[in-house]
Amino acid sequence: MKTFLSLALLLMLSFALCAQNGKVIESLVFTAKSGSQMKYSVYLPGDYAFSQRSYPVVYLLHGYSDDETGWIQFGEANSIADKGISEGKIPPCILVIPDGKVTWYCNSFDGKISWEDVFIQEFMPWIEKEYRIRQKKEFRAIAGLSMGGYGALKLTMRHTDLFSTCIALSSGTFTNEEILKMADADYNRYFSGLFGKSLHGEARLSEAWKANNPLDLIHTVPIEKLKSVRFWIDCGDDDFLCNGNSQLHVDMKKLGIPHEYRVRDGSHSWSYWRSGLATGLEYIGEKFHR
């Protein structure tokens, strides 16, 4: 009898521990109406399989040359979420990590790349029906690192009606001066196919560039719309992207756009982003809580 009770207790304990940890499913495929495909990974909180409730969602964007697996493999996003949820610092939520390839989460100037349109018009509505997600702005957030931090900022600014909170870690935000001085090889590698091929000098500051650049968007998007979003900007003091991030902070402050700005000891590294994600999810959770 004692053996039976001990086994039952052990099973109950194992079940409880498993229920606390979320489930990760990597490299699923979404097919757009055009036939193009977008891979994505999803994190489901521990009680998702046992409840009937709907959950808030965080769209988590990866960096340049990474993919939909990076935030799990290197960023340990699932473990960070598990820990935050178990400690009561983060409400249970779903994380969705789409593959942005090297698109900077943009549509290209020539119409050949339509990542943003597919994401906003097709992928998000589909995801929020496929999974039990609360389909309101207050329960939807976006976060990202480097290229993904840029993507989080510019997608939020261009669609302020969709996201309640934006977390930008080491955002790939460049000042105009940095773009003008950028070596041709670097500009062509990163931006030529998106904002104009082999551009030089002032021509690089094209309409396509301005329509996607956070430093321009804060001047063109109505202030009241920007104020409806909670922005968290975080970039290390040794990060090569610190100039654009600090300029964004200064400009937002001048314009009276509320935001949180953090400069911590660190560089462009996963250790910085892992710690930043933990804090960022807590900040997001403040909005998800009531």
Please give the structural blueprint.
Layout: H1 2-20, E1 23-31, E2 37-44, E3 57-61, H2 70-73, H3 77-86, E4 94-98, H4 115-130, E5 140-145, H5 147-158, E6 165-169, H6 176-181, H7 184-190, H8 192-195, H9 207-210, H10 214-220, H11 223-226, E7 230-234, H12 242-255, E8 259-262, H13 270-288
Parallel strand pairs: 3-4, 3-5, 5-6, 6-7, 7-8
Antiparallel strand pairs: 1-2, 2-4
Helix pairs in contact: 3-13, 10-12
Question: How many distinct domains?
Answer: 1
Structural class per helix/strand content? Answer: alpha/beta
Q: What topology, given as strand order, has the largest sheet?
A: 1-2-4-3-5-6-7-8
Cα end-to-end separation: 46 Å
Mind telling me the CATH class? Alpha Beta
CATH topology: Rossmann fold
Radius of gyration: 20 Å
Please describe the biggest sheet, giving its number of strands, its sense, and whether it closes into a barrel. 8 strands, mixed
Relative helix content: 40-55%
Number of strands: 8
Instruction: Give the uncertain stretches in residue-range form.
Output: 10-18
Strand content: 15-25%
- CATH homology superfamily name: Alpha/Beta hydrolase fold, catalytic domain
What letter string, H or E per element, gives the SSE order?
HEEEHHEHEHEHHHHHHEHEH
CATH architecture type: 3-Layer(aba) Sandwich
Task: Give a structural overview.
With 290 residues, the protein is an alpha/beta fold. It has one domain: Alpha/Beta hydrolase fold, catalytic domain (Rossmann fold). 43% of the residues lie in helices and 16% in strands. It has 13 helices and 8 strands. It has helices at 2-20, 70-73, 77-86, 115-130, 147-158, 176-181, 184-190, 192-195, 207-210, 214-220, 223-226, 242-255, 270-288; strands spanning 23-31, 37-44, 57-61, 94-98, 140-145, 165-169, 230-234, 259-262. Strands 1-2-4-3-5-6-7-8 form an 8-stranded mixed β-sheet, sandwiched between helices. Helix 10 packs parallel to helix 12 (242-255). The longest helix has 19 residues, at 2-20. The chain is globular. The N and C termini lie far apart (46 Å).
